Amino acid sequence: MSQPFDVSCSRHGADVVIDADERRARLGHRGAVVWITGLSGAGKTTLAEAAERALFERGCNVFVLDGDKVRGGLCADLGFSLPERSENIRRIGEVARLFCESGQIVIVSAISPLRVDRDRARRLVPAPHFIEVYCRCPLAVCEERDPKGLYRKARAGQLLEFTGISSPYEAPEAPEVLVDSAASTVGEEVAKLLDELARRGIVRAA
């Protein structure tokens, strides 16, 4: 497995390779992977898009990798069995790593139900550049929201291996950022995330 930020095997001289400090000087911030996990309907995409907007308006190079969009392209060949879910997250993690190495802040919004898969993504990115965000929301609230009608279909047996109903979700045990979308506003969630990015030296404090 390739190591992030390792240019020791490059054929070129050190004066040619662009390092992380040069990218930070150009962009005004460090690269990072913000990995938002939670049940379907927990508010991951809402938080990701709001955080992207807030960082963009502060002049950051930032991009959202949305799980649904990745599923429709890069991972269109995968189903929803646990092994295929793991491969889906592996691919997202590799793409996120490349964004991070380029000096960008990439916000991943994906259910990513298993801790082992999220931990594997974490290992691709050196500390303190990986920030796991747990978008916590009770299952009953997610089902009540059900913006895509997926829970209704899962309860009716029309969707097999649906996370939270017929397939497991393992909540993070020690996320860097915990937001409760059933009790807090999006603005409060974004502020909490930006404070963590500033504390880690990824972006400048407001």
Automatic annotation (TrEMBL):
Keyword Metal-binding: no
InterPro entries per the UniProt record, alphabetical: APS, APS_kinase_dom, P-loop_NTPase, Sulf_AdTrans/APS_kinase
Reactions this protein catalyses: adenosine 5'-phosphosulfate + ATP = 3'-phosphoadenylyl sulfate + ADP + H(+)
Active-site residues, record numbering mapped to chain: 112
Entry EC number(s): 2.7.1.25
Sorted UniProt keywords: ATP-binding, Kinase, Nucleotide-binding, Phosphoprotein, Transferase
Gene3D superfamilies per UniProt: P-loop containing nucleotide triphosphate hydrolases (3.40.50.300)
GO MF, one example: sulfate adenylyltransferase (ATP) activity
GO biological process: hydrogen sulfide biosynthetic process; sulfate assimilation via adenylyl sulfate reduction; sulfate assimilation, phosphoadenylyl sulfate reduction by phosphoadenylyl-sulfate reductase (thioredoxin)
Enzyme class, spelled out: transferase
Family: Belongs to the APS kinase family.
Role of this protein: Catalyzes the synthesis of activated sulfate.
Name of this chain's protein: Adenylyl-sulfate kinase
Organism of derivation: Massilia aurea
Lineage: Bacteria, Pseudomonadati, Pseudomonadota, Betaproteobacteria, Burkholderiales
